[in-house]
């Protein structure tokens, strides 16, 4: 039992460290909040999202999402456009899309560095374990957009199946 408690503790410490290295560092370098960085990545992969939906995808309330969009819009990174009826969608500007690509690159650098501690066999084993953990996390969170808000979707789906997307497809109705 002690081994499971230690493993859970190691996972928690690793998750926080990885999150700090990947998200906070990238957002800080870009001069935006972590939620703003996540929003830019969300918009990079799915253009034209309403403010409320964008907030849901990055884990913010509607009012917090509106303030975040205001900030990103003032920085010239997103723009609001009329949608259907009275709805408004948020899209990235060219500068916002460029920054989203830069954020993904900045996110990858410390993660790739950490993975350098593993040999090829360990790397493959970790990939299998992470896929299992992500599938379980989807079962708890139940929202692919929220769970994958800062994902490089191409890296996850080129020559592979996204474990979160597969967990969603496998979920009983």
From TrEMBL:
Family matches, as InterPro entries: HTH_MarR-typ, MarR/SlyA-like, WH-like_DNA-bd_sf, WH_DNA-bd_sf
Superkingdom of source: Bacteria
SUPFAM superfamilies named in the record: Winged helix' DNA-binding domain
Coiled coil start-end: none
HTH marR-type domain residues: 4-135
UniProt cross-references to Gene3D superfamilies, sorted A to Z: Winged helix-like DNA-binding domain superfamily/Winged helix DNA-binding domain
Pfam family, one: MarR
PANTHER family xrefs: TRANSCRIPTIONAL REGULATOR, MARR FAMILY, TRANSCRIPTIONAL REGULATORY PROTEIN
Protein name: HTH marR-type domain-containing protein
């Amino acid at each position: 039992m002690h081994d499971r408690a230690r493993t859970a503790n190691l996972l928690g410490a690793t998750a926080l460290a990885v999150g700090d290295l990947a998200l906070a560092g990238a957002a800080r370098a870009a001069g935006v909040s972590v939620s703003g960085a996540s929003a830019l990545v969300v918009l990079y992969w799915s253009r034209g999202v309403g403010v409320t939906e964008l907030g849901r995808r990055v884990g913010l309330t509607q009012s917090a999402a509106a303030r975040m969009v205001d900030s990103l819009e003032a920085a010239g990174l997103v723009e609001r456009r009329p949608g259907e009826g009275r709805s408004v969608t948020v899209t990235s500007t060219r500068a916002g899309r460029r920054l989203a690509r830069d954020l993904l690159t900045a996110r990858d650098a410390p993660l790739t560095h950490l993975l350098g501690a593993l040999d090829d066999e360990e790397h493959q084993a970790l990939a299998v374990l992470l896929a299992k953990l992500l599938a379980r996390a989807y079962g708890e969170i139940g929202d692919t957009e929220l769970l994958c808000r800062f994902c490089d979707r191409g890296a996850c789906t080129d020559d592979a199946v996204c474990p979160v997307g597969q967990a969603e497809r496998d979920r009983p109705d």
